[in-house]
Design goal:
- The structure is a single chain.
- By secondary structure, the protein is of the alpha+beta class.
- It has a single domain (about 5-105), classed as HIT-like (HIT family, subunit A).
- Helix content is about 20%, strand content about 20%.
- The chain is built from two helices and five strands, in the order αβββαββ.
- A five-stranded antiparallel β-sheet has the order 1-2-3-5-4, with helices on one face.
- It starts with a helix and ends in an 8-residue tail after the last strand.
- Bound molecules: adenosine monophosphate and zinc ion.
């Protein structure tokens, strides 16, 4: 049992609308989308935030970032915005590292 909502999704305790999964990474649609397309890319390993990433996560971070355009284009987007909120002062609400990907609207959220 964990308090981390994203770990609970990864463990299958809470349902999610997944669009991609591999041994290290899970991608699912945000439950409260801020754009017509809004999905989250996260590591299956619990990493609190970008600020607590270690150098050993360098290739994992690279793989997560490279998935953004691949999945965005698969979802039919022609362009997109990425966002990583870090720490409560950075607007982070779920303390399990994730990359937001937004698209499908002329006006995209900046926060
Ligand atoms: P952040 O403010 O960067 O920590 O973003 C957390 C995001 O997680 C928000 O956009 C939430 O809508 C999203 N979220 C929270 N709970 C869930 C859930 N159960 N399934 C999908 N997305 C979620
Ligand atoms: Zn977690």
């Amino acid at each position: 049992m964990t308090d981390c909502i994203f770990c609970r999704i990864i463990n299958g305790e809470i349902p999610s609308k997944n669009i991609y999964e591999d041994p290290e990474i899970l991608v699912f649609h945000d439950i409260r989308p801020l754009a017509p397309t809004h999905f989250l890319i996260l590591p299956k390993k619990h990493i609190e935030s970008l600020a607590t990433c270690e150098e050993s996560s360098e290739s994992l971070l690279g793989r997560m970032l490279l998935l953004a355009p691949k999945l965005a284009f698969e979802q039919g987007l022609k362009g997109f915005r990425t966002m990583i909120n870090t720490g409560s002062e950075g607007g982070q609400e779920v303390f399990h590292l994730h990359i937001h990907v937004f698209g499908g609207a002329k006006t995209l959220p900046k926060t």
